[in-house]
Write a structure and sequence with these properties.
Blueprint lengths: L1 E5 L5 H13 L3 E3 L11 E8 L8 H9 L5 E10 L4 H12 L9 E4 L4 H15 L1
Parallel strand pairs: 1-2, 1-3, 3-4, 4-5
Helix pairs in contact: 1-4
The site of flavin mononucleotide has 18 residues, from helix 1 and strand 4.
């Protein structure tokens, strides 16, 4: 079972989440949606966010705190930020603090992904899910 969760204010991270979800045959769900909780055991959780004033959004941070290693086999982190990849590290750190195993491989695009990058996101996702 694969799940895709993301936090996105202006749609950049959402676009990447949807490309990943399309490749995995699932629906991308915002962490702010009521149905975002991971209820069943999930082999791969793709989880993405971006930087806003040097940090990840508080909603994403508190969502990560709801996750547990009982339900998440492995997390794969993705991000779109403008200046740095630091969101990847912040998300990874939050997951690891919950005892969740996080893939060394990550996916990052600077800002709004173009069509080629969205295809790349699909290919990236397929490596974990097929
Ligand atoms: C209020 C605000 C603050 C931001 N701060 C940062 C930042 O500190 N570092 C950075 O790399 N990008 C920063 N960005 C750029 C966003 O991380 C980038 O546009 C990202 O793709 C937004 O993702 P989203 O469309 O999924 O919300 C900021 C954007 C906004 C709107």
């Amino acid at each position: 079972m694969t799940e895709v969760r993301y936090y996105s204010r202006s749609g950049n991270t959402k676009a990447v989440a949807e490309a990943i979800a399309k490749a995995a045959g699932v629906t991308a769900v915002s962490v702010t949606d009521t149905g975002a909780a991971i209820k069943d055991k999930t082999d791969i959780l793709f989880i993405g966010g971006a930087l806003y004033a040097y940090g990840i959004d508080a909603d994403l941070r508190s969502y990560i705190d709801t996750l547990s290693s009982d339900k998440v086999g492995k997390a794969v982190v993705f991000s779109t930020s403008w200046l740095s990849r630091h969101a990847l590290d912040l998300i990874r750190k939050g997951l690891e603090e919950k005892g969740i195993s996080v893939s060394e491989e990550t996916l990052y695009f600077r800002g709004k992904p173009n069509e080629t990058q969205l295809k790349e996101a699909e290919e990236f996702a397929k490596r974990f899910t097929l």
